[in-house]
Amino acid sequence: MRCAVSIILSCAIPCLLAFPTLQPRQHSDNHTHHTAATWNQGAINDFIIHDSCNATEVTQLRKGLHDAITLAIHAKQHILRFGNSSEHYRKYFGHAPSGEAIGYYERVINGDKEWGGHWRGSNATNETVICELSYSTRRPLEQLCALGYTVAGSESNTYFGSDLLHRLYHMPAFGENHVEHFAEDYAGALELAKTNSTNTTHDSDILQYFALDTYAYDIAVPGVGCPGEVTEAVSMTETAPAMSSKTATATNAGTAPDAAAAAPKECHTHSDGTVHCT
């Protein structure tokens, strides 16, 4: 083997020496050098949490934002796998093309992380106020389907991740003033899908419901999930709900098996100033 290597080297050297020596290219004094522009300069890759939040609140918010992205990632992956043909997709989006729904999930996953939530006026549209009640009532994604929760029967903001996902969509940076409320409740959301409304793929609640339901069925309790049953009367609107309040109200959740169903109402404001309470 050593001899073979020696032969190869001895053959290669004359060949290399046979090539003329290349001289460096001469540049004229007036030659302009172009450098590649950093196309994404100034991108915000991480959510910015205001310094008014204390250390424990920051910890919970970061976990909640991580959960929101986790929900969005799986929702997008489910659609990419099955397109608009899966039972879950048809349940919430009808026969709508899947591109728009994929895009709004991707916007949360990889879009510029301008922090959003509820509207704070023209001078703070990328900021949100998280009330103290959220830190004591919102659940982590690991508890999905636990403690009596069902997608149909419980509040969509039971989990910090889904609550923050909803808030993000009501900010111009994420929802682009296109994601809004077109159904007032869960039954109304399903009705939109049944009628193949063109609003399903940019309805903020439907985007939440789909993300929660697919994560529950595919990940939390595989093959089972916790869909629940629709018992509410259908209530649908093409505009924001009439019910509004400028302040959140607190009530005692009691000792019911599903504490989420009795959770206090909370209100947030959309990018156009409309107040929505859940």
Can you describe what's shown?
The structure is a single chain. By secondary structure, the chain is an all-alpha fold. Strands 1-2 form a two-stranded antiparallel ribbon. Helix 2 runs antiparallel to helix 4, helix 2 crosses helix 6 and helix 6 runs antiparallel to helix 9. The radius of gyration is 27 Å and the shape is globular. The N terminus is likely disordered. Strand 1 and strand 2 form a beta hairpin. It is built from 9 helices and 2 strands.
| Overall helicity | 25-40%
How far the N terminus sits from the C terminus, by CA atoms, comes to 78 Å
Task: List the uncertain runs.
Answer: 1-21, 232-264
Q: Any idea what the radius of gyration is?
A: 27 Å
Roughly what fraction of the amino acids lie in strands? under 5%
Task: Let me know the average pLDDT.
Answer: 77
Helix-strand topology string: HHHHHHHHHEE
* Total helical segments: 9
Number of strands: 2
Largest sheet: 2 strands, antiparallel
Class per helix and strand makeup: mainly alpha
Q: Estimate the global geometry from the Cα principal axes.
A: globular
Can you list the strand order of the major beta sheet? 1-2
Could you provide a short overview of the structure?
By secondary structure, the protein is an all-alpha fold. It has nine helices and two strands, in the order H-H-H-H-H-H-H-H-H-E-E. A two-stranded antiparallel ribbon has the order 1-2.
